[in-house]
Structure formats: structure tokens, C-alpha cells
Amino acid sequence: MAKDLFYSLDLNLLRTFLVLSQELNMRKASQRLFVSQPAISQALQKLRNHFDDELFVKVPKGLEPTPFAQQLATSIAPHLDGLASELNQVKEFDPSKLSGAIKIAVAPIVLTCLSGSLFLRLKEQAPNCTVELIGWQRSTFEEIKKGEVLLGINLEMSTEQNISQQKLVELTAKIIVNKSHPVKKQQVTASDMAPYPIASVITPGWNDNFVLAANLMKEEGVNPEIGFRSEFVMAVVDVIQQSDFFLPHSNLFPIQNYPTLKALDVTIQGKPYFHNVYSFYHSKYRQTPLIEWLHQQIQQVLNNQIANQF
């Protein structure tokens, strides 16, 4: 049976052969391939044994290819060049060439504040994509694992197996109340807000069974009243517009869109309170250009939103 010249060959040697046929110089080939000249010599000897041909002979100016080597180089160069081109294109990323759907699950506290601006930014750069922004649900992690959701955006939380997270932005806590609210101070504490009920936004799967503001107030030694909770941010906003309830939120709240509301600064144990927004995605996408691009766009939108609030 004739020797199979393809399957019996270490294909790395073909790259060395092609560079040698282009450079016709051992030193230049070693520099281009980032290996030593002895390594080039060893590779060339393996190629000679494999093809049973001298391939290159020494001449005063370097190397001279044999007729077989010339024919081999002419035959394989288009294939290796094509392979190199395809491999290099894998790392190139052009959002304008994206197609299909990008589904992003967003916590209510974030979704209301960036849905329009994020959609427009993504659509501008990836016009052939369908952008789907949905609310964060108790099932979001499972949907990310199954590939039904590409990316999730939420406040800091414990992750599950095969879920990676990355910090997007740091938020500063704010208290949102109506402008006629009895509290007139710009900077408030837990004691200042203790007489008034909390109107809280529920993020399914994150704070189903607790209210973060209430827990923080208890740590300050006060006993808060939780007066209203809803998964719908607009329902909570409607309540605080018509009552003395207060909404614990952040500097991400689009206060400029609500002329009847105001944002108060809040301190916990004498200091501003910060919490972070994270992205969550399947670990297999950890180093993909698509996820990196989405992070950049979301971070930019969030930072722009924060900068324009106050």
C-alpha cells in the first residue's frame, strides 16, 4: 500500500516548508516563525525524509528549491493561505455583520433606565440584528445555560455553575420621593426615612424574599415599614408620586423624566452606599468578541445615563 503523504505528516511542517520556500533563507525563516535555526533544520530534515526529496539545496545566497519543492509550494500555498485567512477572521469582529437575535435579560431597576438608549445603540452598530430586551426572571440563569438568553444584567448576586459574571458599573444609592414629600433635607439617613413606608421594586430571583433598603435600615437600628412592592417599576413610581412612600433606587434612575419627583442622597453608617451592576453569561462565552462588544456598549450607555441624571 502506498504511503499516505497527508495523514502521515505533521501539518506544522508544511508551514515551515512554505515559509522556507518564500524566504529561501534559514535565518529569515526562523525569525518569521519565532523558532531557532536548529529547529528549522530539524523540521527540514523531517520534510526531506517524508517526501524523499532534498527540497532545498544550499547556494551562496541561501537556499534553492528543487523542482519538487517548487511544485509542492505552488500546490499548497493557496490552501494554507486560505486557512490562515479563515483562522485570522475568526478573531475579527464586526457588529455590522451580526444577524439573528440578541436576547438580553435585564433587572427592572436597570431595564427602565436604559432600555431605549441601549436598544438604539445596539441597533445602530448591528442593524441586521434583532435586539430583544426582556425582564430578569427566576429562570434567567437556566435560560442562559440553555442558550435562550445571551446575557443578563442585574445587581450583584450569587452565580451558578457555568455562569460567569463581570462588573459593568458602580451605582450610588438614592432615595426617590415626590417633591412635596415632608422630608426636605437633600441628604438623608435611615432615621430620617423611618416614618415613611418603602415602595420597593422586586427583581424576580434576586430580592423575592427581602427588601435591601429595609435590611440596611434595620442595621441602623430603625424598624422600617414595607408599604408596597411590585415587579413593575412604573407601578412603584406611581405610588411614590401620589404618597409619602419612598423608592430606594440609585443614580441610574431617570429623574429628569419625572418633574414631580426628586432624588435624595442617602448615607449608611455615615457614608454613601454603593452597589454594583453585573453582566451574567455562559462561561463558554468568556473571551468571545461578541460579549466584549456588548459589555462596552452597555457600560457606555450606563455611564452616559448616570452622567445625565444629576
Report how far the terminal alpha carbons are from each other: 80 Å
How many H/I helical runs? 10
Q: How would the global form be characterised?
A: rod-shaped
Mean pLDDT, to the nearest integer, reads 89
What's the main sheet like?
9 strands, mixed
Which residues sit in consecutive blocks of at least 5 with pLDDT less than 50?
Answer: none
Q: Report the CATH topology name of the largest domain.
A: D-Maltodextrin-Binding Protein, domain 2
CATH uppermost class of the largest domain: Alpha Beta
Helix percentage range: 40-55%
What proportion of the residues form beta strands (DSSP E)? 15-25%
Helix-strand pattern: HHHEEHEHEHEEEHEHEHEEEEH
Question: Any idea what the radius of gyration is?
Answer: 31 Å
The tally of domains stands at 3
What is the level-2 CATH architecture name of the largest domain?
A: 3-Layer(aba) Sandwich
The fourth-level CATH homologous superfamily of the largest domain is: Periplasmic binding protein-like II
Helical/strand content category = alpha/beta
Describe this structure in words.
The chain is α/β, with parallel strands linked by helices and 310 residues long. It has three domains: 6-88, Arc Repressor Mutant, subunit A, CATH 1.10.10; 97-169 and 275-308, Periplasmic binding protein-like II (D-Maltodextrin-Binding Protein, domain 2); 170-271, D-Maltodextrin-Binding Protein, domain 2. Helix content is 40%, strand content 25%. The protein has helices spanning 12-23, 26-33, 37-51, 67-91, 108-125, 140-146, 190-193, 212-219, 233-241, 289-307, and strands at residues 56-59, 62-65, 100-106, 129-135, 151-155, 163-178, 187-188, 198-201, 226-230, 247-250, 261-268, 271-272, 274-282. Helix 1 (12-23) packs across helix 3 (37-51), helix 1 packs across helix 4 (67-91) and helix 5 packs across helix 10. It starts with 11 loop residues before the first helix and ends with a helix. The model has no long low-confidence stretch (mean pLDDT 89). Belongs to the LysR transcriptional regulatory family.
